[in-house]
Specification:
This protein has 3 helices and no strands. The chain is mainly α. 21% of the residues are buried.
């Protein structure tokens, strides 16, 4: 298993869940600092993960103990987003 790819994909999933919860509200005309921060951070996590995967930064990744926590966070974040979107 490629731990670097798993790490960056999990970060992208967290970013996607942030963005999917905030961008529809912003598009509907609601505006608050928390919605803007969620949208910016979500898009930033997605773009950052894509950049690292596409530029070959996977070789520079140093495995540590945080990858399982990031994967757990991605699973919980995705579950929370799905429960919020489809109650």
């Amino acid at each position: 298993m490629n731990r670097a790819l798993l790490h960056y994909v999990s970060l992208g999933i967290i970013g996607l869940s942030f963005a999917t919860l905030s961008i529809p509200d912003l598009a509907a005309g609601d505006s608050s600092i928390s919605l803007w921060l969620f949208a910016i951070s979500g898009v930033g996590l997605i773009l950052g993960g894509l950049y690292d995967v596409l530029t070959g930064s996977l070789n520079d990744f140093e495995p540590d103990g945080f990858t399982p926590l990031v994967v757990l966070g991605a699973v919980l974040s995705l579950a929370g987003a799905l429960l919020s979107l489809f109650p």
